[in-house]
Amino acid sequence: MVKIGIVDDEMPVRDRIERCITGALREEDQEVQIRKFADGEDFLEAVHSGESFDLLLADIQMDGMDGMELGRTVRRLQPGIYIIFITSYEEYAAESYRIEAYQYILKQDLDSRLPAVIRELIARIGSRDEKFRVVVSGMERVKIFYRDIIYLYKSKGAKYVNYVTRQGIYRERISLDAALKELASDRFLPVERGYVVNMDHILKIRKDTVFLEKGYEVQISRSRLSWVKEQISRRWEA
């Protein structure tokens, strides 16, 4: 599922953007969840409470927190998010690209430009997030998408690897090294003996602790601290 946030302080504009998105994806085979917010503060509250978004569409001119400030903050909290700025004024284009916005669309061009941009971007997100792993957990076979894995861990002496995901925790009888090898993705980073984090779910690093979505925290071993910070910086700057 692709999660989309729309932030605009005018309800008719929020509804118009939603109609553009749903119309553009009417014939696409992709499940999408759209949430609308009247201001940036409400959107950030949802992010801080553990919600993760793949795409943000935000008006630039809003009372209180404007779209540029929102974009800079969201970029720090969820580095992998795609941002599309919506505005009535062309002079904001240069600033939007400094925040690494995916697109900058004038409101008068919304109906003509947004549908094609949305279809292209949803296809890109879907391709990025289509990888999954089937885990035998108890009596169940569970399909776990890479994008949903927040971190993995295996306690000392334990026989099972625990996959901590957005949907819950699943166990698999396998070594952590073997699980990491089979995942074969550079998004997964070993930060401590027995702990591997998905860098796409890192919200911040403070001293030797990684803060992840949904309030999870994982400590980085002292011997790996510099290397881990370097890998995360590279991921965020990619």
Give your account of this protein's structure.
The protein is of the alpha/beta class and 238 residues long. Helix content is 34%, strand content 31%. It has seven helices and 15 strands. The protein has helices spanning 11-24, 40-48, 67-77, 93-98, 110-128, 176-183, 225-237; strands spanning 2-7, 32-37, 55-59, 82-87, 103-106, 132-137, 140-145, 149-153, 161-165, 169-172, 188-192, 195-198, 202-206, 209-212, 217-219. The protein has a five-stranded parallel β-sheet, sandwiched between helices. Strands 10-9-8-12-11 form a five-stranded antiparallel β-sheet. Helix 3 (67-77) links the parallel strand 3 and strand 4 (82-87). Helix 1 (11-24) packs across helix 5 and helix 2 packs parallel to helix 3 (67-77). The longest helix has 19 residues, at 110-128. It starts with a strand and ends with a helix.
- Tell me about the largest β-sheet: 5 strands, parallel
Overall form: globular
Number of strands: 15
Q: Work out the helix count.
A: 7
H and E order: EHEHEHEHEHEEEEEHEEEEEH
Quote the distance from N terminus to C terminus: 23 Å
